[in-house]
């Protein structure tokens, strides 16, 4: 899976966890639901850090969480099995 698709998966999962539709997230972030859909499908490869910050804020995620999860996925590490100090 490419990084853009993985990022989209993280966003979609958290959006579902919070019970938000793409349209609702779009309104909260001043983005169209079509753009949210492209991001979640991994088809938006030119997502800015400003856009990611807007999305992560509304989804109650830290940008660092995105990076950690993307790196773990790339290295096939199950974060649920790690012990954090």
Describe the structure.
The chain is mostly helical. Helices cover 64% and strands 0% of the residues. The chain is built from five helices and no strands. Helix 1 crosses helix 5. The model has no long low-confidence stretch (mean pLDDT 84).
Draw up the topology in text.
Layout (H helix, E strand, L loop, with lengths): L2 H15 L4 H8 L3 H9 L7 H10 L4 H12 L11
The total count of helices amounts to: 5
From the coordinates shown, what is the CATH architecture?
Orthogonal Bundle
Q: What structural category do the secondary elements indicate?
A: mainly alpha
Q: Give average pLDDT, whole number.
A: 84
Low-confidence stretches: none
Search tags:
mainly alpha, 434 Repressor (Amino-terminal Domain), globular, 85 residues
Q: Quick gist of this model?
A:
By secondary structure, this protein is mainly α.
């Amino acid at each position: 899976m490419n990084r853009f698709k993985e990022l989209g998966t993280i966003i979609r999962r958290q959006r579902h966890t919070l019970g938000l539709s793409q349209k609702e997230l779009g309104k909260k972030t001043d983005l169209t639901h079509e753009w949210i859909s492209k991001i979640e499908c991994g088809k938006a490869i030119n997502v800015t850090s400003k856009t990611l910050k807007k999305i992560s804020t509304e989804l109650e995620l830290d940008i660092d969480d995105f990076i950690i999860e993307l790196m773990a996925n790339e290295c096939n590490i199950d974060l649920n099995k790690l012990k954090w100090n």
